[in-house]
Amino acid sequence: MIDVDMVMASLENAIASTGGFCVGRSYVVGHQRLSGLGYCFSASLPPLLATAASEAIKIIDEQPERVNRVRENATKVHKALEKIFSGTLFALVGAEISPLKHLQWKGKKEQAEEVLDQLVDKLFDNHSILVTRARYLVKEECFPVESSIKVMVQSELTDEEMDRFVNAVSDIVQNL
After folding, report:
1. What is the pTM of this model?
2. In the CATH scheme, what architecture does the domain 65-175 have?
3. What is the DSSP string of 12-67?
4. pLDDT tens-digit profile of 162-173?
5. Domain boundaries, the chain
6. Which of 89, 96, 99, 97 lies closest to 147 in space, CA to CA?
7. Residues near 9 by Cβ (< 8 Å), separated by ≥ 6?
8. Per-residue pLDDT tens digits for 50-108
């Protein structure tokens, strides 16, 4: 902590809630504590999200094997999608063990929206698989964002369900 004033982390993506923590020397943490009081109640965590976060932590504590399963499933899907996208204009963005994947179109930028929408529509219409587009307020973003489809891998997915998804994506990608 001598070289770094503060370490902060968000729990927003990890437990589908909001909030986080900061750690640092006593004067830095004291400043955060005193300066942040005005936000404690005006921007406080809604009860539903607080309950969801608490339950998520409880489940992780009671069933740590779920964390391992979601990592294994994420890795399987990641490797399969990388193989499918090899030699195409599609790209997979995300860490191998992360359950959140972004599927992107690396062709002409002006075509990205249309191509990704076609993939979403064909997955649903032809295979009854629902995925969603990542949507942003582009003019409000500080950094440029690329169009993508969000895919979330869960711990309870079976090998058959993951294979069905991967095969459906493969089928559609080869024809786009």
Report:
1. 0.76
2. Alpha-Beta Complex (3.90)
3. TTTTTS--EEEEE-HHHHHHHHHHTHHHHHHTPPPHHHHHHHHHHHHHHHH-THHH
4. 999 999 999 999
5. 6-62, 65-175
6. 89
7. 20, 21, 22
8. 888 889 889 999 999 999 999 999 999 999 999 999 999 999 999 999 999 999 999 99
